[in-house]
Amino acid sequence: MEHLSFDIEISDEFDVQPGEDLAQYGPFHISVAATVESGGDSRLWYSAGDGGVPARSMDQGKARELLAYLAQMQKDGCKLFAWNGLGFDLRWIGYNADDMETAAGVALGLYDPMFQFFNRRGFPVGLAAVAEAMGVRQVKLMDSADAPREWNKGNYQRVMDYVAGDCQITNQVVDAIARRKSVSWRTRKGTVSSEPMPRFKTVAEVLREPEPDQSWMVGGGLRRGKFIEWLPAHLLASAR
User: Fold this and answer.
1) d(CA 83, CA 170)
2) pLDDT tens for residues 129-138?
3) pLDDT tens digit string along 29-76?
């Protein structure tokens, strides 16, 4: 299966407290993004600042270039994957490109295994927890919260390696899910749980399914609407 995974890192620094909604700190600006094809070819996306060193944040032109690339790859038949790409990556690519319409169109055709999982179980799951449980040996190079600080300190290559590495891990997880027809994750208790995932579904397909049963969760948990609140209403309506 030919596919491509993408991921972004942000340049905004803040401390998120347990239980806080990350979105309240937005809008976010992108420091660097990566795209990695299933065959291994990779690209890094960032804006150059003074002296050719990376700028603190990606400018609108580069964000539009990235978004156009993703849209064209999708149009050409390449399956795009991103872990929580619906609720995070494409939202902020669209914001920085000042083109939410195109970003939303790409999002509806995106394969987001985390969102697909959420719609079955009612809670999100992290990439690292899934990769570990599914036997992916490559590990994340840092915590996502550290990436903005490292970038702004000038440790550009470290963050570039990290964002590209997350795409590589996503590709390996996608391949593992495709083989097993299920997704496994390491729980907070340290055990391994699994959920059937016979095939990958686009975001649009998932949105046509019932919302997850969260009646067992204290407070009801994260609502599905949180992932799609940025999508233009007319595109959301057409997807359903």
Assistant:
1) 7
2) 999 999 999 9
3) 999 999 999 988 999 999 998 888 999 999 999 999 999 999 999 999
